[in-house]
């Protein structure tokens, strides 16, 4: 095998990882918006930031990327409080609003297109 084919394969894997990560990020933004709206909070900056990525097994035992996204929200309009969204593949595992875990409420968000 020549090194060009290996390099092309590596670029392909990197492109796939980036694309899948962007789709998951868009879904995390929608989940953060929905969780804040359901709790009567303001979702700030309309964005999330990737804070941790690792491999984890889903319910079927398959390896998937588990990503933690951080975001900020406000309950008064004058402050910023931290929130976390954990995604396993394209599925929401849980949402934390300043330490209050909400496992099932945001998990029904479907893939955005």
Task: Outline the structure in words.
- The protein has 113 residues and is α+β, with helices and mostly antiparallel strands.
- Helix content is 33%, strand content 36%.
- It contains 1 helix and 6 strands; from the N terminus they run H-E-E-E-E-E-E.
- It has one helix at residues 3-39; strands at residues 42-43, 49-57, 63-74, 81-88, 91-97, 100-102.
- Strands 1, 2, 3, 4, 5 and 6 form a 6-stranded antiparallel β-sheet that branches.
Structural class: alpha+beta
Beta-strand content estimate: 35-45%
Radius of gyration: 16 Å
The biggest beta sheet is recorded as: 6 strands, antiparallel
Distance between the termini: 38 Å
SS elements, strand count:
6
DSSP summary: helix tally: 1
- Broad shape: elongated
Could you tell me the mean pLDDT?
86
SSE arrangement, N to C: HEEEEEE
Subunit organisation of the chains: single chain
Low-confidence spans: 104-113
Q: Summarize the amount of helix as a percent range.
A: 25-40%
Task: Provide keyphrases for this structure.
113 residues, alpha+beta, 6-stranded antiparallel sheet, 1 helix, elongated, disordered C terminus
TL;DR?
The protein has 113 residues and is of the alpha+beta class.
Give the secondary structure arrangement, pairings included:
Elements: H1 3-39, E1 42-43, E2 49-57, E3 63-74, E4 81-88, E5 91-97, E6 100-102
Antiparallel strand pairs: 1-3, 2-3, 3-4, 4-5, 5-6
